[in-house]
Amino acid sequence: MTTPxxxxxxxVGGTNIKxxxxxxEGRTLAYxxxxxxxSQGPASAIRRVAAELHTMLADIGHTISDVATIGLAMPxxxxxxxxxxxxxxxxxxWFHFPIRxxxxxxxxxxxxLANDANAAAFGEYWLGSGREFRSMVLxxxxxxxGGGIIVNDTLVEGDHSFGSECGHIIIDFNDDARxxxxxxxxxxEAYASGTAIVKRTQEALEAGEKSSLMAxxxxxxxxxxxxxxxxxxxxxxxxxxxVMETARYLGVGVVSLMHTIDPGAVxxxxxxxxxxxxxPLGTMxxxxxxxxxxxxxxxxxxxxxxxxxxxxxxDAGYLGACGLARQAYLRDQQAxxxx
Amino acid sequence: MTTPxxxxxxxVGGTNIKxxxxxxEGRTLAYxxxxxxxSQGPASAIRRVAAELHTMLADIGHTISDVATIGLAMPxxxxxxxxxxxxxxxxxxWFHFPIRxxxxxxxxxxxxLANDANAAAFGEYWLGSGREFRSMVLxxxxxxxGGGIIVNDTLVEGDHSFGSECGHIIIDFNDDARxxxxxxxxxxEAYASGTAIVKRTQEALEAGEKSSLMAxxxxxxxxxxxxxxxxxxxxxxxxxxxVMETARYLGVGVVSLMHTIDPGAVxxxxxxxxxxxxxPLGTMxxxxxxxxxxxxxxxxxxxxxxxxxxxxxxDAGYLGACGLARQAYLRDQQAxxxx
Lengths: 339, 339
Known about the structure:
Two copies of one chain form a homodimer. Chain A is of the alpha/beta class.
């Protein structure tokens, strides 16, 4: 049996919205997933989220008065100060919407906003792979490279909401460095993202490298990071090279994070995780990241910093949103009363 | 007239020890500089520091009971948890000494330890070029490249005391990247330190580049970063190229800091500052850093992040030590009492 205060976490994605209710220790009391229905716009979605919250509470015999704070995780850049969305590319009908106020009005509860990658990082920090450390960095590998940095319990959001953009560490200053879509050169994301994996593989194939990928592409399959991972697992040399090279690039970025943040753990997650800790390929991949770190970092952090995969999977976002809501609530409780 | 609590800051260097007494607003009430007398060892130095503290207090009609906390800044890595020196290369007789306990025993006051670059960063954050921001990064250019990171009022010391080592951000992952003395490749320090400036200049001269530096070196002068700066100011093309190239490398490191920490300001200091804000060369240098940032960073932080020189000079260390002492004192005062 658990008692209030409870915390809701809402993780908005392009397809689904995940909603979880947790207690003070992060135990999930209820969890629902609803469709985003992006084209219906944010006001409609927020109304459906609020209805869902009330249903979830009623199901376990509680009301919104038992909820201390709600954490709302959103993709892309958000205007945290004003509680508004900006221009999330996967939510084209949601631009510049006062989403915090909307959810507060629908629920009567205090809402705190966070970027979804930052929320996922906080989830792993509170309940997942970073839970035994004071500081942690998450790197998420997907279409791009995202991240989240927690220093001594505080999520690094930055003075202009550009903190924790770990995919945009520069790993190569040279004029021939790879480009991100904006044309800027040398960013980690230009090397280690899913997009970069596909690009690097295509370049190698065009240069005449032999690979079992060709047979699949000739059958009409589209080249994806998953296909590269699958062929690497089957022993395709080029695919394995691409995976290990990705690990090498990531390791370079990890060293810059170790020599600035010096976290207890660097945690790797996202869809492009090569099977993660349970797979031989994932194990080789993370071992290659560690090897690159040993080559470049000071011996003490190289030895002591844990480098591991995430453990919460896609639950990290709503759990982290709950965790940030809980932290905001606790800080508010502890703040000195000023008259 | 100012009233206690007061804070002492002690900044230990290889040649001198700077000691300052400040009030709660950072106003310096007294300042002395004594010789380190390195070869006499740390116990002797700490006794002389303590005697100096008592004299300084007596001179202004106060006693040690008006001092809330003492901040002690030390060069190199320090074991903050255990309050001990490690192996500071410019203090060879001071290895593995329980320096915090020694100063506490000599004074009866609480002592907090910090690395000197970190203390300088905190000084600039509290009273100098970073004083209007919530977060700040300092990069110090000297023999090496040092730094300090403050996030939301907290100095980033890291989980293994390797935080804020900004000279060891990787800016080039390639196998032919420049090396630091340990042989590791691609660190910012291998490109932008005073040592690197001399090395890059030597290489250019050996490759046959014409320069007014040669005339001075032929007269027996030793090539130094200051000589490069002087000749750059006199219009020597190679020297100016070296200075601008240093700015370019620094700019790359600054972008990685902006996309992870996203500070309000990045502050540049140290002995190799090309004359700083008051000199035409210093102005060109920092403008080149800003230009590199604009090329590589997201537009919002590129536009909004202040990039400027330090303003406290060599006082930053003791002032920052005072600031860290004050912060430790205030946090201790605010902490909930547990029975």
